[in-house]
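Dear support,

We are seeing what looks like truncated structure output for some complexes. This example has two components. We would appreciate it if you could run it in full and send us the complete token output so we can diff it against ours.
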Amino acid sequence: MMENVLSAVAILMGLGLVFSTILAIANKKLRVYEDPRIDQVEEMLPGTNCGACGSPGCRAFAEQLVNSEATPGGCTVSSSDNVESIATFLGVDPGFAEKRTARLLCAGGKAEARDEIEYHGVETCRSMTVVTGGNKGCVWGCLGLGDCELACTFNVITMNENGLPVVDVNGCTACGDCVDICPKHLFTIMPVSQKLIVQCRSLLEGEAAERLCSVACNACERCAADAAPGLIEMRNNLPVINYANNELAHPKATKRCPTNAICWVEGNQFEYRKSRSLPLGRVEVFRSEETV
Amino acid sequence: MLLTLNHEQNGQITFKHGIHPEYYKELTQHLSVERMPFVEEYVLPLSQHIGAPSIAIVQKKQKVERGEMIAKPGGFVSVALHAPVSGTVTAIEASRHPNGQLLPAIRIKADPFATQRFEAKTPPVLEEMDQKQFVALVQSAGLVGLGGAAFPSHVKFSIPEGKHCKFLIINGCECEPFLTSDHRLMLEQAPQLIKGIKILARFLGVEKTFVGIEVNKADAIAGLQSLIQKEKTVMEVVPLQVKYPQGAEKMLITAILKKEVPSGKLPLDVETVVANVGTAVALADYFTRSQPLIERIVTVTGPGINRPANLMVPIGTPLHEVIETCGGLKPETTRILLGGPMMGVAQKNLEVPVLKGTSGVLALTGQEAREISTYKCVRCGRCLQACPTSLNPSLLGLLTRKGLYEEMKDEHLMDCIECACCSFVCPSGIPLVQGFRVAKAILREREAAA
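Here is the complete output from our reference environment:
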């Protein structure tokens, strides 16, 4: 009896010894050197794995930073102090990237875009699109059920009373979750310096467009005429802004817009529009005029 | 466990699972088909079928004749489009499509002085034709499956190398409640139907032809049987149990041939081609008097319609004109569907036209439209007993809520035929099929992106 116990112990000890030797040799022979700074930098990054920097996660971005393939400023989620401290740690230039944010290219909320039917079903935008493309007359516009609000990793999208998503520009990290989720493809990531925005995707023109939504672009081309040459071009009944010439942009291009489809946006979108009871006019959108 | 694929209930052939909804066919089944008067304007979307949109070959202000080709196929899985009326092309522009999008369409203004009679031309000679020419002709005739899916017929009829087709099943089930267009077609155009089936059987080289009809259309079964006997044609009329979705392609094959189409495969993999009765008649129309697909029978029915009817409607007729012909809508109408109540699509706008695949226009009032409140899944398992493809809709429904689409794929979501049996029986009123359609669309998108 005792012999059995002893032999079992001996065999296990022997096995343990053999494998530990193999592991010890493997540790020496197969060792891959990894820069210890990668771990440290990863620690300093926010760890949200949001992908806003363009890397698949914070670890990958840390590797790029250590290999000087990216600058710490590429992380738009970190505070500037944090970026500063990573830059000092690595001894590189922080290289602040321009602040970017998600913008919605539609301003047709409940009050502006006409509902054609009453929808009863799964309360998500995506589900609504399989039933004749949604309840609104406009087939391009925001459906207002807030898929983006749920998708946002940083909880900076809130649906306002008018059924439009308001992106908090300060909190937005430009990760692109909302861009992917929107079934109408209305979100776009753009630098905050690009303030001239066409908040409409309707390809209709004239009265046909305005019948469906009071803030639709009716393709009158006034903005294109008023803007600096080469800035705005009409394509498919919509003004397309050439952001390469963004320095030419000026709020005067929006002044004669009869529907407020083209806007000069400072800060968050849609916040100026507290209530739609105000008559449609150019003044209201120009809350930001004094700052210009 | 060995599954018996089909079973006989009360001596009637059918498939496993499925549901028995209220049929309401008595509203229109005794009414003969009326020809709808011509209206002022017709809208013909270039994508009326599954596959690539057709390509317009007419210009604005061009005069067209009834039956003239106005758009050519945009690829192999695509068909031609023909003018349903003589008139003038007023525009080729984005128009409302029943799927909710704005898609390019040809608008034709009918000529008020034209006779609007289709001039029969000498048909192509069948005896001198080989399979390839036949397929090309079917494509240029604009033929699509008239059962509702509008899948280009010539794709079904072109049998690839190495495969052959032993069985032809003609689908006269019309299992959707309310709809009676196929029923009337079988009663009123039986000789044309037999002619179409013969042509099809000849070119597919089949060994046996079946016509599957549900037993609630006893007059159609008897009529066809006597005609077959009189003409000494070799085909078998199979009376089937009244059950939804008996008319789904794969269910029909299971019921009649006792074979199951493997997951992700086509009927041709079990040596079968299934075609709708409407398609067979349209085929005969083309090969006897060169008439392409320019009109179809549409059942306009439902408790919201003042005068339910079976109408012969030129394709492209706006919905509001169709409804007006049937006496308009009752004020209590709450929902308008294109197609039957199970698989039809709710419409938000009556400007949309009747398409090649539109088998019915259905106006429901509050009573028939389902209760709206949704409760949690109580795991009763009724959906499992209803699902004709033997999926687990309950599990799939939970996965949809969590957005676990890849896992849904592992649960064979792609085999779902969207027949809506699960949603129909769900005591909690969960819109299961809507979720599945979303999941399928997302999976298809991901596949395309990868």
